[in-house]
From TrEMBL:
Start-end of Basic and acidic residues biased regions: 239-253
InterPro entries: DUF6283 (IPR046250)
A Pfam family assignment: DUF6283
Top-rank taxon: Bacteria
Protein name as catalogued: Uncharacterized protein
Organism, scientific name: Embleya scabrispora
Ranges for region Disordered: 1-40, 227-260
Lineage: Bacteria, Bacillati, Actinomycetota, Actinomycetes, Kitasatosporales
Amino acid sequence: MGVPHDTGVGPQRDGMPATRPSGGAGDDAANVEGLYGADTEHDRRVRARLAELSAAAGMEPGAVLAQLNACVARGESPGSSEAVPPRRAVITPEPARVPIVVARRAADHVWGVTTITGDDPPAVRERPCGGVEPCPWRRDAPLGQFPPAAFELSAPTSAPGSTRRFGCHSSTPSHPRICAGWLLRGADGNPRIRELLRTGRLSPPELPDGMELYDSYTEMAVANGVDPGHPALYPPARPPEEADLHPLADPPHDGGACDP
């Protein structure tokens, strides 16, 4: 349904409508036909103009005529912008984007990496997670809370030119969020993220006072048990248009080292 439009009688004076009393749309229509119903050039032009105004305002022709007559009675020009209220724009909301799981890869018997698509523009955590399982980008997070294989699988999210994203471990595939720590330290080479931040479609998270993060994905992954020479940590840089292509239209979003 569209947004309903008002068809009120216009400004009120001393509690009374400024236009003529009307029994309804039927009376308005009858008034138009009674005054301008003749088959003359003048009346045809009046009826045509009333039809244009009524279509633009979303009102019956008789109601438009009443508004015009009220303007004349107040000494205002019938051509003023207030004579006939404009039709309200009908805003059709965009359909909701439902995230779709396109891959699940196990890192151990508990944790794994889930890749989704369809969450563009993405949501993001306001700050790096705390609690029992804090964000792995935090230097004070317990080492080894997530298996090294999870960091190896998610390494492409920080590859130069990649459009993949590292997901927050406390989000879910149905309600994904970008990891705040990754966005603050590991997304510099992601052209899609840079564009979202530049246009304001994505807001950067905050880093609370005193909280320290790893400087890079490689530093974080190595601290959590990944071999410093593992090839996943050193992927070749590729142009953005060739990076992480996927048959679906939206850039994939990895659950990262933290998505169960």
